[in-house]
Amino acid sequence: QVQLVESGGGLVQAGGSLRLSCAATGSLFSVGAMGWYRQAPGKQRELVATITSGGNINYADSVKGRFTISRDNAKNAVYLQMNSLKPEDTAVYYCNADLKGYGFAYRGYWGRGTQVTVSS
Q: What are the tens digits of pLDDT across the range 97-114?
């Protein structure tokens, strides 16, 4: 069964840092674009950052200069280094990836989400 497993959320003071990790597991044939989204209470889910298999990166304006996305293709993993965290970064962070299992077409998958809370 193909799935995404996240880790690394938690509680941090404003100005602090956290690193999120997400690994794709299961009978994988190929991994396409990977990324992170977040959803704050009462708000829609929004893009944080994405990275293609070739390394092209896109960030939301609100996190540029503070967050860094990276991936390890050998581990089918994507990471989000979050620095200079602000209270408005508080949200559930979701990993997303385009995964292709053996005998299947590419489709998008979501992780279960990990809570990030930034206190002021």
A: 999 988 889 999 999 999
Phi, psi dihedral angles at 8 (to 5 degrees):
110, 0
Q: Extract the tokens encoding 91.
A: 């949200």
The residues with which 39 forms a beta bridge, in sequence order, are 92
> Could you give the CA distance from residue 3 to residue 8 in angstroms, rounded to a whole number?
17
For 18, other C-beta atoms within 10 Å of its C-beta total 21
Whether 109 contacts 4, CB under 8 Å: yes
Strands 46-51 and 57-59, by their bridges, are antiparallel
Other C-beta atoms lying within 10 Å of the C-beta of residue 40: 14
* Furthest CA-CA distance within the chain: 49
